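Morning F.,

Quick status update on the modeling queue. The single chain you submitted on Monday has been processed. Sequence for confirmation:
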Amino acid sequence: MAPTKTPDAPSPTLTPTLTPTLTPTLAPLVAAIRGSAVAVTEPSKPKSGQASLDGRWTIDDSAEIYQTRLWGKGFFDINAKGHVVVRPTRVLGHEIDLFEVVNGMRERGLNTPVLLHFSDLLERRMRDMREAFNAAIAENNYRGSYFGVYPIKVNQQRRVVEEVRRNGVELGFGLEVGSKPELLAVMGLTTDSPDRLIICNGFKEEKYIEFVTLAAKLGRNIIPVIENIGELKLIVEYAKRLGVRPKIGVRMNLATPGAGRWRHSSGVKAKFGLSLTEVLETLNYLKERDMADCLQLLHCHMGSQIHDIRQVNAGVNELTRIYVELVKMGAGLKYLDVGGGMGIDYDGSQTAFEFSTNYSLQEYASSVVYKAMSVCDEEGVEHPIIVTESGRAMVAQQSVLIFDVLGTNRPDRSPPPASLAGLPLVDGELPRPLIDLWELHQSISERRLLEQYHDALEAREEAMRLFSVGYLTLEHRAVIDQLFWSISARIRDKSKDMGAHMPEELADLDSTLSDMYFCNLSIFQSLPDIWAINQLFPIMPIHRLDERPTRKATLADITCDSDGKIDRFVDDHDIKKFVELHEYEEGSTYLIGAFLVGAYQETLGDLHNLFGDTHVAHIKLDENGQWWVDEIVEGDSITEVLKYVQFDATQLGAEIRRECERAVRKKQLTPKESKLFMKIYETGLAGYTYLEPTRTISES
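Structure tokens below.
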């Protein structure tokens, strides 16, 4: 069974300073952040799965089924047309209709799947973080400051990093790198702001450290965080050689255990970081060289997607305790880096569930500030500069993946026949399991639903055994399947009235009888965390939301891999094994969106079946609230993905041309057919790796 969401556990009482009477200037700001802007839309609260009183399906019913206004946090909603809209600034009327955007992409010759980035939403999210910490600092009379730092590993796409850099100039955000390539990219992007805080994590060899030291000599505000004692010795060696007084950070492995899916990425067995003994060894090493003042940053990793605020409180408390003791021992510490971990409420439940968070952004900021302040005040240590590296919380919400449905597979596609007359006989009679299922189909009783379901299962199993030894014909088996699925559907429908008394086996029938919707995407390329770690993303249609969805379905991608499917969906109390969708008619347009996918998905994707990167469109709002396309990055062509795996498209084309000429000589093809074949082949090489609408050669 899927893990059940647990209600929020009460957080430890911090102090009355977390909920003070605010100044007039801060009050509206904090209210907006604390409310996560859900109240902006003022949604109605229909009962889940039920239409309005007059029987008509409304957009409020759809918002309830898909939990749109809960995980949407004011950024996502449904308009009167039944289309999903994005409100990047959370301002009513300033919204982007996703269905219109996709149509606009098609008019530009770009088909789904397409990844949409919303630049204004990213900026709003960064401002939310800055304003939340500013408010917490003001509330608590904190005497330090705050730096948000973006780890570019979360989404390394050039445009995303550039937007973080640009917004960070005003908001005071820095950047974090974990490798030489990331460092070289960030250095080139930040020449206009040399005082920008750059934190260097990850393992470092001599060339990495040499470059960091030269960057410090250049005047950059750069802090290498040592992961082992060997790195410390190299930093000291290059600092002496180049005449630099470096800023040095150290990552500490906390004793506080991790929480959630990534709980093992923190704690004493974490991949990165020093033990307490090694931290003290680091300080003594620097003291012996009169460099204790160079140890300026203390860092830790508490985990990723931390869902419980108590874990944050415990981790910050332990880290600050170590910080103040190191200061009293002579370290020149100024920065308290609590790392990443601020979570995203993927399901909107705001609970201590691994895909949710039982805290708001404001509570997170207030907890970090208050814990750091209280420990420092207790020990008489100056308040540090607080640093966070919460990349997921910064960029996840600004990306939406849109893909189209190609077809469906439905268990109830073929209803059972009106009678059994005409079916072939075996030894003068119909097979017993077939007769049993037929009689059961005619006599479904609400009083015996579970018993009758068991009878249907037993008859079907017996039929399969008879078929395996040749006593049933293929025609018999087809009718048995039709009867079984029809019986199951009728039992499912009648069991709805059982409410809380419904047996578990019958409750699972919704999942058993769900359709398969085949979708034009690769899970491995665009949503790899679904395959790799069972990540939960909000997924829903982006149109027809003023209509009742009548089908329950799982989703399958177009890769040749059984793992290329989505069968876990957002629910209000658990994880659903299906998503409610509308009837799909072959040849029609039906578009589905996966939301909150801006963290990790683009750079973790792989080339399974050589499906490449999707088209990417960066969408912005003008001052009048009208959307426009700021930049389009076309997805990989087949030629490009072949090049990734060392195939030369030119050479491949030449080989095909030679084969065509041989076929012309043998009169298998005419010269005109040879030319047509080559044109189709060359057009294919230049085309999108995903399925495209049918078109003629002349149209292309």
